[in-house]
């Protein structure tokens, strides 16, 4: 059955607001009031939660994180934008590979696996992932997923 996306995002974002002990401010905005997806919720959880967790982890205390969601008949897409440490251009493509972590992570802990799982999940659904980032300014990940699932033969 189709998953209504606005309540889905609102619930996860509320969970992350409670999880963030460092007063990050998370905002959510969507212009489409009744976006749905047919994508498996567990798979979508991997995508959304890994990206939100990164946005919090790689942002300073009090950083603003903005989540926006939109859809049309063919696709849904969402942005997760932070004001964190950023990713230099030479790492922006590589970090979808397992165990790759950028040089500017400093003492922030991680295994380097989250984004490789995100990429795999997005690929499995025939979607796309885009990263735009500037060191010391912030990062925006955009995920686009098709609305119509292509039946497998
Ligand atoms: P984990 O496996 O616990 O998620 P991780 O966060 O290090 O560990 P990924 O989520 O795969 O691993 O991210 C890979 C690398 O990409 C990070 O180590 C970091 O260098 C960079 N990165 C990911 N998201 C962000 C972000 N929002 N801001 C800045 N750097 C990021
Ligand atoms: Mg991570």
TrEMBL record:
Ranges where the Histidine kinase domain occurs: 1-149
Protein name stated in the entry: histidine kinase
Organism (species): Spirulina subsalsa FACHB-351
